[in-house]
Design a protein that fits this description.
The protein is α+β, with helices and mostly antiparallel strands. Helices cover 20% and strands 26% of the residues. The protein contains 7 helices and 15 strands. The strands form 4 sheets. Strands 5-15-11-6-10-9 form a 6-stranded mixed beta sheet. Strands 1, 4, 12, 13 and 14 form a 5-stranded mixed beta sheet that branches.
Length: 326
C-alpha cells in the first residue's frame, strides 16, 4: 500500500530520533503520587505538648473490687491507697530537608501550579509523618539526649510488658520502663489460641474494646486471616455483585468486634492489639512539624522540617504485642 512520506507525525517527531523532534512532548500537567500515605496509629491517638526533654506522666490503678463487709457503726480504719507510678520518655528529633534552586523556581514545571518549594514541603512533611509512625511502632528503647548523642523515643514495643508473646527462642520485654525491648525470635505460624490469651489480658486491663484495633503489616494480617477460625479462614464470593472477598476488616472476638487495620509502617511478623485511648503523642512546641529557613547557599533555597516528639504509654496493660508471626 502506498504511503505519503511528507510531514507525517513520524517525520515531524524526528523519524525515531527524539533530538530532531519538532513536536512538543506530551507531559500531563499533574503529578501522581503512587506511594500510599496513611499513619493510622499516630493519627489516631491523643495529642499533647512536651515541655522537657524528659517528658513524664503519671499512671494509677483501681483497687480490687472484692467486697469487704462492714460491721454496723464500726470504727473506720485508716484508708489505704496504691502509689501512683511516674513514667517518662525522651523527646526525639526526626527531620527532612527541602532544597530548591532559584533557577528551578523560575521555570514552568509540569504538575506544579505554584512554587516548587511549596510542593516539596508538602511531600517532605508526609514523608516525615510516615517516619514518625515507623519510629513509634518499632522496637526501640529510649536514649537520653546529650550534646553529642541524639535522644531516642521508646516505641510501643518498649512499653508493652503485661500482654506479649514471642517465639520459643525469643525473649519477652522485661519491664514497662521504655528501657528494654523484646527479642521476637524465629517466626512461627500464627496461633489463634495465643491471640485469645492476649485478648483476655487486654480485656482484664481495659474492659472497653470500643477503641481497640489489631494492627500489622499486610503480610502479617494475611497470616492472621488465614489462621483464625470461622468465616475469615475462607474466601467468600457474592454471585449478585461478582465480588470475591479475601480480607478481614473486623475480628469478632469473645469480647466483641475488633477493627483490623493494615499499617505499612509496621515491622514484619508483628501484630499489635492497641487500645488507642491508652496512648499519647507529645510534640515539642505543641505542633508536629517545625519549619526553619536555612541560609541560602549558591542560589538554592533550603528549608529544614523537624518533628520533636515522644510517646506516652498511659496504660500499657490495655495493649498486647504478638511477635514472631511467620
Amino acid at each position: 500500500m502506498a504511503t505519503i512520506a511528507g510531514n507525517s507525525a513520524y517525520v515531524l517527531g524526528g523519524s525515531g530520533t527524539p533530538a530532531n523532534s519538532n513536536i512538543r512532548e506530551d507531559l500531563g500537567n499533574v503529578i501522581f503520587n503512587v506511594t500510599p500515605y496513611k499513619t493510622p496509629f499516630s493519627s489516631g491517638i491523643a495529642k499533647t505538648k512536651a515541655t522537657n526533654d524528659n517528658h513524664e506522666w503519671l499512671t494509677d490503678t483501681l483497687a480490687t473490687t472484692a467486697p469487704s463487709w462492714d460491721v454496723e457503726a464500726d470504727t473506720v480504719g485508716a484508708a489505704t491507697s496504691d502509689t501512683r507510678v511516674r513514667k517518662g520518655n525522651y523527646v526525639g528529633i526526626l527531620s527532612e530537608t527541602a532544597t530548591v534552586t532559584n533557577k528551578a523556581e523560575m521555570f514552568d514545571k509540569a504538575g506544579i501550579p505554584g512554587k516548587e518549594m511549596a510542593y516539596q514541603l508538602m511531600k517532605k512533611g508526609k514523608e516525615l509523618h510516615m517516619t514518625v509512625e515507623t519510629a513509634l511502632l518499632g522496637k526501640n528503647a529510649k536514649v537520653s539526649p546529650t550534646n553529642s548523642t541524639a535522644g531516642e523515643v521508646a516505641s510501643v514495643a518498649s512499653w508493652i510488658n503485661t500482654n506479649e508473646s514471642v517465639a520459643a527462642d525469643g525473649t519477652a520485654n522485661t519491664a514497662s520502663t521504655g528501657l528494654t525491648v523484646p527479642s521476637p525470635g524465629t517466626p512461627a505460624a500464627f496461633s489463634e489460641t495465643t491471640l485469645e490469651t492476649l485478648l483476655d489480658g487486654v480485656w482484664n486491663n481495659s474492659g472497653d474494646f470500643a477503641n481497640v484495633s489489631i494492627m500489622g503489616q499486610a503480610g502479617t494480617i494475611g497470616s492472621f486471616r488465614a489462621g483464625v477460625s470461622g468465616i475469615a479462614d475462607s474466601v467468600e464470593s457474592s454471585a449478585a455483585t461478582g465480588e470475591i472477598y479475601n480480607r478481614v476488616a473486623v475480628y469478632q472476638s469473645q469480647f466483641g468486634p475488633i477493627k483490623v487495620v493494615p499499617n505499612k509502617q509496621m515491622y514484619d511478623n508483628t501484630l499489635y492489639v492497641l487500645d488507642m485511648s491508652s496512648w499519647g503523642l507529645a510534640f515539642g512546641g505543641g505542633k508536629m512539624i517545625h519549619t526553619t529557613d536555612i541560609a541560602t547557599q549558591r542560589s538554592a533555597d533550603q528549608k529544614l522540617l523537624e518533628c520533636y516528639f515522644t510517646l506516652e504509654a498511659r496504660s500499657e496493660e490495655a495493649n498486647a504485642g504478638y511477635y514472631a508471626i511467620s
